[in-house]
Amino acid sequence: xxxxxxxxxxRRRLMGAKLHLFYDPPLHLVRxxxxxxxxxxxxxxxxxxNNVPHVGHCHPRVxxxxxxxxxxxxxxxxxxxxxxxxxxxxxLALLPRGFEVCAFVNSGSEAVDLAWxxxxxxxxxxxxxxMEDAYHGWTxxxxxxxxxxxxxxPLAPHVRTLPAPGTVNSGAAxxxxxxxxxxxxxxxxxxxxxxxxxxxxxxxxxxxxxLADVFAAVRAAGGLCIADEVQAGFGRPGSHFWxxxxxxxxxxxxxxxxxxxxxxxLGVVVTRREIMDAFMDSTSFFSxxxxxxxxxxxxxxxxxxxxxxxxxxxxxxxxxxxxAGLIGLMERHAVVGAVRGKGLLLGVELVRDCGSRExxxxxxxxxxxxxxxxxxxxxxxxxxxxxxxxxPPMVFGREHAALLLDALDRALARL
Amino acid sequence: xxxxxxxxxxRRRLMGAKLHLFYDPPLHLVRxxxxxxxxxxxxxxxxxxNNVPHVGHCHPRVxxxxxxxxxxxxxxxxxxxxxxxxxxxxxLALLPRGFEVCAFVNSGSEAVDLAWxxxxxxxxxxxxxxMEDAYHGWTxxxxxxxxxxxxxxPLAPHVRTLPAPGTVNSGAAxxxxxxxxxxxxxxxxxxxxxxxxxxxxxxxxxxxxxLADVFAAVRAAGGLCIADEVQAGFGRPGSHFWxxxxxxxxxxxxxxxxxxxxxxxLGVVVTRREIMDAFMDSTSFFSxxxxxxxxxxxxxxxxxxxxxxxxxxxxxxxxxxxxAGLIGLMERHAVVGAVRGKGLLLGVELVRDCGSRExxxxxxxxxxxxxxxxxxxxxxxxxxxxxxxxxPPMVFGREHAALLLDALDRALARL
Lengths: 415, 415
What we know:
2 copies of one chain form a homodimer.
Chain A: H1 3-15, E1 29-33, E2 36-39, E3 44-47, H2 60-70, H3 82-92, E4 101-105, H4 108-123, E5 127-131, H5 140-143, E6 159-162, H6 171-184, E7 189-194, H7 210-220, E8 224-228, E9 253-256, E10 267-271, H8 273-282, H9 293-308, H10 311-332, E11 336-342, E12 345-350, H11 361-373, E13 376-377, E14 379-381, E15 387-390, H12 398-414
Parallel strand pairs in A: 3-13, 5-6, 5-7, 7-8, 8-9
Antiparallel strand pairs in A: 1-2, 2-3, 4-10, 9-10, 11-12, 12-15, 14-15
Helix pairs in contact in A: 2-9, 3-9, 4-8, 6-7, 10-12
């Protein structure tokens, strides 16, 4: 067996055969640098998919912050130290008025689990409203709020879904229906949880006022509104720092994960003091690793780099150019049915036919592999897996957008 | 305001007033090194409490592994890479036959949440059995398995508890009662979850055969047995590498957290292939940060240091000496009612009266502060908070045990 085959076999043996890999055969990675990933054969790939290395793979400033703090002190929030307080202050400064306190955990799943518990403690209600095909994480509580993880499984009795937003604003009516359905079961909404980029719905552009209308209905029924910013947040929309801001709404709780620590495990829940206090009165919450010195040093470094390298501006300019280029490809390739999204989070819907909009699912998967062969990593999203997902590190430049567009043009021609 | 007061005020403002700190006034830490922690005034404290920095605060080998890997590649298990597979292999080599596969997450809470979901998927059952006063984490699902987090709250309908083990082996009868009570509610046990050191019960020495009898009863009723090794594991018992091994039992699932990455957020679930596969057939599990390159490099470094520095042996010899010294203190101080535990996880029960064994709760808290004033950090445990908890980094040497015993002798005299 060669090294690659041996590693694949060992992985299946030691980590199970059913842990999904992106490519078949999988990509054996050994190094990352900025927007580039390198495989064991020394070949480089343009990373147009991974948002976790938000300011670029192995950004030296973040690596240095982690290394320095790991060598100095790494302990827990039962003690007083500066890193976590400084980070909380820096993070809250990026949020609208009203966000007062941070709670620190280790992943987006943990952040949503905690936010969900806070919403229940604060409202005294038990019901949840999420988008159809939503994904918010994998803990038992959050899995119930993530219908796309097991599409054939019935929803939990306390969960209702809203249909994916269309071109007309149906927010008020959709929310009213979900709230009424919860009420029929004797439940009130504790929370509506939403990814403002509607990623797992296929990266959707909701109509103006959609989220504002849903928020108003949920709040009128006594529920809180939670924005899950693991996809949309941290400058990625370009026009705004947060996904919720692109909809001109202010949530009650914001959950953060994925990009927040450039890959270091970190999750944060940000909310109002009254919500945090209601939760802390109901239980004795503590996360052993949450808010540790190293994770907060990583988080602070990410915020510094975002600002110093003007990466939100970069997402706006490069994202606009990339989107224009993708729209240009629609004219050359009938399979490109739509281009959606904002900044450096863009979706390209592939269809078999522009009229019927039949999802080109197999073609999308084939395209991902053709792109990989061309040295560009992209993902896919949506219920039918037919939306090409472009969500690169925020240091993705104009030259990288040009490379991506060129490779995509050629790959589409080969479909 | 001085720096300390200013930091305290900022913490309360930005992280909430109800996030508990160990000491009043709290300890403002700035540096860690081996068994030592240093405060902002330059004073050093002997750390006889923290098990998360398992091989010592800021161990250079672990810091170096984190720094090197963070600078090279940190991505997720949708790609193939060596670090996670190598770590899974090293970890499984430390477990008995039958443990075949690892799943990687970011904390002990996540590990127990995942193990619980696996147990339900594999058994098709919904009931849980835990120890009274158990603590296994804080996600919504695991919080329900952690009665000590909200002692006044009724148990969830699917949860039953076993009384803390006494001096006579009541395992079979206690388990039978819990199983019968679940059956009355129409439920079967999916899992019995136990910390083999019974930490939150007050660090108990269960009678011979206790856990074996509980395991046998739970398995006969179709449930799985989960050992939560976040307290007891990784060589801490001295005589054995795992807590469950001290009871001569083999669980179906082992959950790991706290000490596993020396502070780097990491959690692991280890189990049999059939259990993992049943779970993965039921859903599409994936943890974004779980099993990332850096966390696994940290985990591997911890295992290397444990072996190279013979820290399990150290736990056996230093733990035995420390325990003998603590037993010696019983003769000199009537408040010391019992000394329990194994290796470097020891509990000292403080009582107002040797006959009634009335918990000396306030005295224990005062003792913790006296010890802090003497430059030694210890914790407390148990329902009444009257069990002094000694659980130092594994590099705790004979000289440190002597310092601890001397400080404790003096502090007890001042109570």
